[in-house]
Design brief:
By secondary structure, this protein is mostly beta strands. It contains 2 helices and 18 strands.
């Protein structure tokens, strides 16, 4: 039995060394900062890294933006994430594996406005793409949408595609461009799908538009 245990441990150690030699990281690179306005930073494993154009984004990174900031992150599949000022966004998981037709993108929108435009990951057969906010989760099906503070509540607005907005209390499907949903809290059913007027939609878009 002891001999078998030694063999198992040796095999495990060999795998660890093999992974290291092949550059397999615990937190892989998943995207790059392609545009930046004003100041922002990356929080990675407790370390603060000033952000600049070309900065690499890794799984588990937290993105913090300052006043007047705008950030554009382009992921490995071409998905674009735009982030507005005073935001906190965490990249929980990101996997794009077209060879096996699978993909996962789990992002936590902890604070502030963002816009998410799905790339090639939306075309995969087996995919899970979700944006998590404090008031609910947004399931993405190949989509362009905005989320963030809007008119005293948390709003989600659809530019194109289909999203499913849900929490423990219920959910809504948003499939008509120009419509959105208000999320008033994790303990409340997401609001009815309504048409956003031009002024509200433009105000939302302005929060992630570069100047």
């Amino acid at each position: 039995m002891f001999k078998n245990l030694v063999v198992v441990l040796s095999l495990a150690a060999g795998l660890v060394f093999a992974f290291a030699e092949n550059g397999i990281a615990a937190n892989p690179d998943v995207g790059t900062v392609t545009r930046l306005q004003s100041d922002a930073k990356i929080i990675r494993e407790g370390q603060t890294i000033p952000m600049e154009v070309g900065s690499v984004i890794r799984e588990s990174d937290e993105i913090n933006s300052e006043n007047m900031a705008r950030i554009e992150i382009t992921f490995t599949d071409g998905t674009t994430l735009l982030i507005g000022e005073n935001a906190r966004i965490e990249i929980d998981e990101y996997l794009y594996d077209p060879g096996n037709n699978i993909g996962t993108a789990i992002i936590s929108a902890l604070q502030g406005p963002f816009r998410f435009i799905t790339g090639k990951i939306g075309q995969l057969k087996d995919k899970r793409v979700e944006i998590k906010s404090s008031a609910g989760t947004i399931g993405v099906r190949g989509t362009d949408f905005w989320g963030g503070p809007s008119q005293g509540t948390y709003g989600v607005f659809l530019f194109e595609g289909v999203i499913v907005i849900f929490n423990a209390e219920g959910g809504r499907i948003v499939s008509t461009p120009g419509t959105g949903v208000d999320l008033d809290g994790i303990d409340k059913v997401p609001g009815e799908v309504t048409v956003w007027g031009a002024s509200r939609a433009q105000a939302a878009l302005a929060t992630v538009t570069f100047r």
